[in-house]
Amino acid sequence: MDYKQELQHFFGENCLLCEPMGAHTTYRTGGPAEVYVYPQTNEEWEFVLKLARTQNIPLRVLGFGSNILVGSRGIGGITCSTRKMNRILVEQDTVKAQAGAPLDKVCELACKAGLAGMEKLSGIPGSVGGAVFMNAGAYGQETADCLEYFNIIDLEGRPATLTKEDVKFSYRKAEGLPPCIILSAGFALEPGDFTQLLAARNHVQHSRVEKQPLEFPSAGSVFKRPVGDYASRLIDEAGLRGLRVGGAKVSEKHAGFIVNFNHATPEDIKNLMDQVRAKVKEKFGVELELEQILWGGFEA
Ligand SMILES: Cc1cc2nc3c(=O)[nH]c(=O)nc-3n(C[C@H](O)[C@H](O)[C@H](O)COP(=O)(O)OP(=O)(O)OC[C@H]3O[C@@H](n4cnc5c(N)ncnc54)[C@H](O)[C@@H]3O)c2cc1C
Q: What domains sit in the chain, N to C, each tagged with a CATH number?
């Protein structure tokens, strides 16, 4: 049996071959994953990790694909989705969630339970695992602020529990995180007034609708904030608002976003990213750093 057959045999309907990634990423475009699986239990993770390790097959983990662009040529090897690991438990002042739970749902349940500390993360369209890995944040709150611990399995299949002190969290980074799968996380929150928390959540959600081009597929801010500035300001002042390549354009509503407004290919988006970066560099001498992650092969 080759490795694909082994995975099909083990995962049954939770193993898909040649799965188009446009269906699993918020850009709504992207080439196929050679093998796409949904591990859920530790045993299933151990199985897939061992297979990848012993047969030297590349393995990636995908949350909600809200920060990833996959090239048209697709991704070789195994792509594991956490989507089916989505349990959330509110226990006193802690919210525990599996990696594939929607971060926004965790925020909602925390607010409703009168627990403060993550209300401003409302509306970030990623999973809990992706939020920890990226240290997602907004409106002055970051995932790491209220993160108490997270459970991982390393590439050798060994489970461990890490606390936030084990990793150096900074702006959209978890430095020193060993190569691993984040399986679940616990957030330690403060008691608060649930009406105020829900109002704060509501405010953030409205502000997102007002400022972000949520009517089009995107993956949020394309570039990180340069020190002391905003990528969107530089892009705007370089006159790039509305710049198009094929079906992709720099959003007119928020210049920090590239939107897929008309069946964009991944290469349309990537070319537009490259043009924006080059023009901002030319005009301001600032090297914009990608916040979004590129996976797989892109056509030249
Ligand atoms: C409209 C819109 C608005 C956005 N607004 C914000 C914002 O305000 N603030 C912000 O920070 N981001 C924002 N984002 C970006 C994105 O939502 C975040 O980066 C989010 O944390 C990514 O989570 P994900 O589950 O989609 O991760 P993915 O995009 O699926 O993956 C991102 C990275 O995390 C890794 N990863 C995912 N899950 C795991 C896991 N379980 N274990 C190990 N590694 C894992 C992946 O391998 C990949 O390297 C926005 C995106 C969109 C589309």
A: 3-81 (3.30.43.10), 88-211 (3.30.465.10), 231-295 (3.90.78.10)
